[in-house]
Design a protein that fits this description.
By secondary structure, this protein is mainly α. It has helices spanning about 5-25, 30-35, 45-65, 70-95, 100-125.
């Protein structure tokens, strides 16, 4: 349990906090404005937050699995690619990605993936 559940929970908490801070304090208005231009309302209901919590847990589990097979740097790079780059391609393809967030979101998401990978590598010993 100490080598599986606790690291995954701590990593999930880090990812959730990182996502909340980035999306609330740094890029929230970009999302609001972009969705308004699309004639839509940015989804901010509690259910959306719950789904992002599930995404954070899923992302932590993926990073946990990767951390067992790859070095810290390899885990961080693969995690970022799986968690963010692929997501941005999809939402960009759907036309709901405000490209203007990327200069802020890219470095913060790289930091998020690296710290998450670091947490799991630290617990692995």
């Amino acid at each position: 349990m100490k080598k599986t559940i606790i690291p995954i929970i701590l990593t999930t908490l880090w990812i959730s906090i990182s996502e909340f801070v980035r999306n609330t304090f740094f890029i929230h208005q970009y999302w609001i404005d972009h969705y308004q231009k699309l004639g839509m309302t940015f989804p901010e209901k509690p259910m959306n937050g719950a789904i992002w919590g599930l995404w954070s847990l899923s992302f932590a589990i993926v990073i946990f699995i990767l951390s067992k097979k790859f070095s810290l740097l390899q885990t961080a790079i693969l995690s970022w690619f799986i968690g963010f780059e692929l997501m941005w391609l999809v939402i960009g393809n759907l036309g709901v990605l405000p490209v203007s967030i990327l200069p802020i979101a890219i470095p913060l998401s790289i930091l998020e993936a690296f710290v998450a990978s670091y947490i799991l590598h630290k617990f692995r010993g």
